[in-house]
Design brief:
Shape: elongated
CATH architecture: Sandwich
Low-confidence stretches: 8-33
Order of helices and strands: EEHEEEHEHEEEEEE
CATH class: Mainly Beta
Helix content: 10-25%
Strand order of the largest sheet: 1-7-5-9-10
Strand content: over 45%
Structural class: mainly beta
CATH topology: Immunoglobulin-like
CATH superfamily: Immunoglobulins
């Protein structure tokens, strides 16, 4: 399996700062989920100032690797693997930690990142089996994030009205009528996880999934 991750920063990639599905792929522009917004929520930003130089420095080349699988556990009690979908890697800087803390502590608001902070990341594409890899990393703490959409089919019972099918001393006997309708819709799931590379040259395995980290195996496998 061959992967190529690239730095998306400054002049290397100009992402549209808008509420779009994502930013930075080779096929179409995508904005990562850190920009996703609840239209009914208020907008907030971290008070911490974004240090672009520190973020870019954290993504300079090293000798470590983070790899694993990206997957989601859906309502049909089965695993769905990513691919080809982008997986983003962000350096966990003080600014990023401030944004994440703000997002987790503000359920009724949308926590935005500085547009420049969103651009400083690495990106790779998970294959059809969900396998991804980031190479040439430095020791440090990172945040992995991805999303997936897939087609779903549902059936619901639709009320058609009622018929009077008889009479009793107490009154009419009512029969409610229904029919089933099948419809297609798209479901979207987000997966994200923090990863730490302790030493230069380490190879860290970490699955990216919507499964809670506490349910991962001891080897960080959450897609099995």
């Amino acid at each position: 399996m061959k992967h190529q991750n690239r730095l998306v920063s400054g002049l290397l990639s100009i992402c549209a700062i808008a509420l779009l599905p994502g930013c930075g792929s080779t096929e179409r522009q995508r904005v990562p989920l850190v920009l996703q917004s609840n239209p009914n929520a208020s907008t907030i930003y971290p008070k911490e100032k974004f240090d672009k130089n520190a973020a870019v420095a954290a993504l300079q080349k090293g000798n470590s690797t983070i790899q694993g699988k990206a997957c989601v556990y859906n309502n049909a009690n089965r695993w769905i693997y990513w691919g080809p979908y982008p997986v983003w890697l962000y350096p966990v800087t003080p600014y990023f930690e401030a944004w994440y803390t703000l997002r987790e502590s503000s359920p009724f608001s949308t926590a935005y990142m500085d547009p420049e902070a969103i651009k400083v990341r690495l990106e790779t594409i998970a294959n059809k089996d969900g396998e991804y890899a980031f190479h040439n990393l430095r020791p440090g703490k990172y945040f992995l994030q991805t999303y997936m959409t897939w087609d779903m089919v549902s059936t619901e019972s639709v009320y058609d009205g009622y018929d009077v099918v008889g009479m009793t001393p107490q009154g009419p006997v009512i029969q409610d009528n229904y029919h089933n309708e099948t419809y297609n819709w798209k479901k979207r799931s987000t997966a994200e996880v923090f990863v730490t590379v302790a030493r230069d040259g380490d190879k860290v395995y970490m699955d990216v999934t919507n499964r809670p980290p506490g349910l991962f195996r001891a080897d960080n496998k959450g897609c099995e």
